[in-house]
Amino acid sequence: MLKLDDVTKEFRIGAFGGKSVTAVQNVSFEVVPGEVVSLIGESGSGKSTIGRMILGLNPVTSGSITFNDRPVQAGREYYRHIQGIFQDPFSSFNPVFKADRVFAMIKDAYYPAVPEPEWAERVAASLRDVRLNPDQVLGKYPHQLSGGQLQRLLIARALLLDIKLLVADEITSMLDASTRIDVLNLLAELKSRGLGVLYITHDLSLGNYLAERTVVLRRGSVVEMGLTDRVFGDPLHPYTRELLSAVPRLHEAWDDATPVDTCRYHRRGGSGGLLEAEPGHFVACAHLSTCS
Ligand SMILES: Nc1ncnc2c1ncn2[C@@H]1O[C@H](COP(=O)(O)OP(=O)(O)OP(=O)(O)O)[C@@H](O)[C@H]1O
């Protein structure tokens, strides 16, 4: 199980790192095996920073991230179980390597003792799992494959490992509508095999389609989380309601002045924690800075 406990991330910025920006603040949530959790929020809300911390690509400033009770530790053993896939599949491949090479690197790093014929069969099986024809993709360079094929290749590569958690950061945003649905269905199939997925997205409808639970981020903090049906069906936080009513402009930068001024939880629950409004459905007060 992946567990984030009170995680905060500050980046040092400016000349000589004299200033800092808080990208993620006091975030806690879990992803259990066989569950898709979608992490949604506007651009700059801290989604990718959370993904990168889970993958050990950025250290946390405070709090902890554990996977099966062990702290994140970037390295071969960790990546055997946890893999990340990102928005732009082309940037994940070295353009001068054919697809075969991607798989050979996994063999060299993790399975050097496996005989070649057995390895070839494993590769073919993982490609078939993601509905790719091995004969049509192996032997090709990245530019000879489509974005959807490359995303599937990345998933196939992850499947060759003993993967338990996939961090999928905007993986469908560069795909056309039909390929997007194919990749989403593939993720749904993987979750039914016990894989946990953190699905990071701007796109509420995709999160709604796939995820059992939804975590809504605003300016680095969780404002609401719970079962997707409940968060979408009965959004409690004004910001979540705003997000749901503003779907068509989700890809635009948001105006910081977005009014978030009505909150029925104001003054009901301390100064910053999430309130459990109903079992498993948590919401932040919309007036955190003034709530006491
Ligand atoms: N390496 C960094 N150095 C300084 N600031 C950073 C760094 N990475 C991210 N940030 C800042 O942290 C905040 C959160 O960024 P992040 O990329 O996590 O947001 P996001 O929700 O994933 O946005 P998008 O959907 O546009 O990718 C932003 O204000 C961003 O400018």
Automatic annotation (TrEMBL):
SMART domains: AAA. Signal peptide: none annotated. GO terms for molecular function: ATP binding. It holds the Pfam family ABC_tran. Gene3D superfamilies: P-loop containing nucleotide triphosphate hydrolases (3.40.50.300). Keywords: ATP-binding, Nucleotide-binding, Transport. Residues 2-244 form the ABC transporter domain. It comes from the Bacteria. The keyword Kinase does not apply. CDD domains: ABC_NikE_OppD_transporters (cd03257). PANTHER family: ABC-TYPE DIPEPTIDE/OLIGOPEPTIDE TRANSPORT SYSTEM, ATPASE COMPONENT, ABC-TYPE DIPEPTIDE_OLIGOPEPTIDE TRANSPORT SYSTEM, ATPASE COMPONENT. This is ATP-binding cassette domain-containing protein.
